Batch of 4 targets.
Target 1
Amino acid sequence: MNSIVTENLAVAYEDILVVNDLDMQLPQGKITAIIGPNGCGKSTVLKAIGRILKPKKGLVYLNGDDIRRLSSKEIARQMAILPQSPQAPAGLTVGELVAYGRFPHQKGFGKLKPEDKKIIQWPWR
């Protein structure tokens, strides 16, 4: 099963079309790189996938579900996007940064559970 799929995705800034008719499948559990020259739309695609930018047309699916129909919390449980900038605060470890990604899985202001700590340690365990 593909974890992220786009169908006929078109994304624009105002009237400037940056991405048009993109069909893409990102396999679940794999590391995938999106490469291309500056200004070709790599970050724009990621913003559309993460619901930061609304596509002009097309669909984005996350684990088979249309992301337009998912709550922000549900998306945050399944996916995280870490932009290149701004930079993480000085002194923040990778583990601490990954731990922030566990917040959508907590109830209220709960503490990290052993399962959360196990997930944070992947793939170093």
Note: Helices lie at 42-49, 72-78, 94-100, 114-121.
Target 2
Amino acid sequence: MASTFETVARIISSTSDVPIEKITPDSHVMKDLEVDSLAFLDVTFEIDKTFGIRLPVEDWLQNVKGGYDGDKYFVLRNLCQHIDEVVGTTAA
């Protein structure tokens, strides 16, 4: 079974046309991979569908607009950790 990171990297690559070899655990989805907020909604829709969860992406985008550091939401390592936590919570 693919790791969360591998799955998310595949989703980003297929929905955003970002070459998969450019995607690393330390990549910031918007700053490094240049995925805009609209495309990120497509990415999160696919993540939600693939993992059977619902990411609070609207809240994240509002927090970033409000001045909060987006790294905790948009750096892939952190995003994948959040996905694993949500999946673990829903599986329990």
Note: Residues 13 and 46 are 12 Å apart (CA to CA).
Target 3
Amino acid sequence: MKRLFSMILLLGLTIGAIFVFRLSLQEALVDVDIEELARYSAPKTTENSPEPAKTLAQTTKTTVPAQEVTPPTSHETETTPAFAQETIETTKKEINVPPPLTHQSPTPIGTLTVSGVLARTNAERKAQSQGDLALNAKLTTAATAKLQDMFAKQYFAHVSPQGKEPSDWVDEAGYTYKLTGENLALGDFSSDADLVAAWMNSPGHRANILKPEYTEIGVAVGKGMFEGREMWLAVQVFGHPMPVCPLPSEQTKQNITTNQNTLKQLQTQLTDKKQELDTYEPKNGDIYKQKVDAYNVLIAEYNALIGTTEQLVNQYNVDINTYNTCIANG
């Protein structure tokens, strides 16, 4: 009986040992399968193998730096920059016309000559330490035309019955002046000295003869019938020519205007692109970065044109100031 019990116990122990061994072997096989599966799911990469795709959690979010997106303040305004441009000063033309002089000589009527009137006039200037006046052909043409018109239309005045001014005769003769003046005389003069002396005794005519700024003169004298009497008419036309000053470049002015118009167009484009960037979502990714890059390129173009235009305006202003100074001092 005891022997039978021992055999049964031994058999049970043997069966138990076999069961435990198989269970351990099964767990080992399961572990091996999982490891092999893991190796298959994550194969090794080589230099020529493509990078494994990143999951959403692994993707790095790319954003555009803030300084690339935000434009400078000046570009956000609705107006283009204003450039301070100088202006060419209007040339001030001075015209001196004292009241016409009528003269009666106590001596018999004599002869007047252009050369004699010029010589006596310069003698008076020299006595007052003023430079001689040069006889100018265009001013003489103006004086002769005025004298002939007065005889033809029987008037003695600086302004003709048709309203023609002293400066009109000068302009028609082609003389470009800064200063001009006119002396008129009507009478029975005995000589050139008598005529010039009569002018010198009249404050307004004297001021014209001695005016330091005058450098040139035109003279015309003639004898003819005036209001039924034979008389002499004499005309002096004084002048200070307009100095030859280089005008600012017209091409530079046109380039400034063209650039300003282009800046207005770029300003509109920048405003539109800025609004588009402000409303665009998402503010990352290739498309957004392309828009930002295009905006920044436009800003660079805008700023470069501002710089170029500023240089043009500065040069133009220098040229204008040079011209204005030349005109003022000429």
Note: Strands lie at 94-96, 101-103, 134-135, 177-187, 216-226, 229-241.
Target 4
Amino acid sequence: MSDAQRTAAEPSDRETATHRGDKLELRLWLRLLTCSSLIEREIRNALRQNFDTTLPRFDLLAQLDRAPDGLTMGELSGRMMVSAGNITGLTDRLVEEGLVKRTPSEHDRRSSRVRLTPEGKRAFDAITPIHEHWLESMMGDLSREEMRALMTLLAKLKNSARSHAPDNNPGENE
């Protein structure tokens, strides 16, 4: 078998590597992961090609856009689900570019609040409608009703995953 034939015969994602006999839970998990990965990859590529920016930068600006009073580094870290170290480096670069500013917290001098600058707000606002269009396009085969139903089911899955996570069941893995 040639390299090209071998590559064509290999699964293109985690989900396609499963078999009908595999547990439904595994197949569902891999389908969710595949969908998330596909969308994220396309958004990352489009942001890089069209705006010379990265998804983490866009995500940080989006979090600050939703918080006009700013956020602490810990709040940003929690909302973006990344380490404080990652947020610090990213914020430092955005401060240097004039897109965000840090101000000392009024309540805790060891902490600071990060806010969008007017330039950061303009940059974010320029990307937002195009980002929304990309998402609408990728989800274009779903009706509004299907999207609402999927949101409901995913909320139920999210709650189930949280309540049954191994960390929530001490002693189970001992």
Note: The CA atoms of residues 57 and 81 lie 14 Å apart.
